[in-house]
Write a structure and sequence with these properties.
Blueprint (H helix, E strand, L loop, with lengths): L9 E5 L4 H12 L3 E6 L3 H11 L4 E5 L5 H13 L5 E4 L14 H29 L4 E5 L12 H21 L5 E7 L5 H9 L1 H10 L8 H11 L11 E4 L10 H4 L1
Length: about 260
């Protein structure tokens, strides 16, 4: 790769067509990476959406990573071509509600998508890297709530905390192979439900503003910038790290009146 901003030529991105994923995909493509975008959209629709944001050197693969066979299929498809030497694990879901109101299915869906599927995907990727002597890197996208409670998303926060442990375990086990693993923990990002609530629910906006010292939501581009840093030459000595980019949201716990 000629571009000095990245250390990896082929990068797989899970959740590539989501709110944050689109910006990460666009940014890494502009920096010269061959992007392998993995998402839930059907193949034709996914290819069409990907062409809008990464028209050059990009490949779309449809997969539901919580399904074991679907996960194996996407690994096989990548093995047939240029296998990624970096992975950005963005795929995830959140289901809001106090823990006592959440069903077994709610909890299992969040944990399976955000943590269990990431463990299985990492296992398959790392197995391939070890066999081919590829010094790759996995970046798990967590959240500032992986160590600071935010009311109403306890299973989600638990899954993100699990990603931190997963990443550190991978880093420790695989350093001898030159394989690295790091975490990026964003704050409250201006996409999806958070963006909608910020604009439409005054109570939410007041609570979020109180929680963010910088006083604004984080842009998806700011998350993408963090990802590109971790994939760049200035981060080559980082492994097992958690890069926190949250506008200061994790600096202090919320006051009781904010929780209520």
């Amino acid at each position: 790769m000629n571009n000095e901003n990245l250390s990896f030529a082929t990068i797989a991105i899970t959740g590539a067509l989501g709110g944050i994923g689109r910006e990460v995909t666009r940014t890494l493509s502009k920096l010269g990476a061959h992007v392998i975008a993995i998402d839930l959209l059907e193949q034709g629709e996914g290819e069409s959406e990907l062409r809008k944001i990464a028209p050059n050197e990009s490949t779309y693969l449809q997969s539901n990573l919580t399904d074991n066979q679907s996960l194996r299929n996407v690994i096989e498809k990548m093995s047939e071509g240029e296998f990624p030497n970096a992975v950005v694990a963005l795929a995830g879901i959140v289901i809001s509600g106090d823990l006592v109101t959440q069903s077994d299915e709610d909890i299992e869906d969040v944990i399976n998508c955000n943590l269990t599927s990431q463990i299985k995907l990492s296992r398959e990727i790392i197995h391939h890297w070890q066999n081919k002597s590829i010094e790759g890197q996995i970046i798990f996208v967590s959240s500032w709530v992986d160590h600071v409670p935010w009311p109403g998303i306890t299973p989600y926060a638990s899954s993100k905390a699990g990603l931190v442990a997963l990443s550190r375990g991978i880093a420790r086990e695989n350093a001898k192979f030159g394989i690295r693993s790091n975490v990026l923990s964003p704050g409250i990002v201006d996409v999806g439900m958070a963006a909608k609530q910020w604009r439409e629910e005054n109570d939410y906006k007041l609570r979020a503003m109180r929680a963010i010292p910088l006083g604004r939501l984080q842009s998806a581009q700011e998350v993408a910038d963090g990802v590109s840093f971790l994939l760049g030459p200035r981060a080559l000595y980082m492994t097992g790290s958690n890069l926190l980019i949250d506008g200061g949201a994790s600096l202090y716990p919320m006051d009781p009146e904010d929780v209520n």
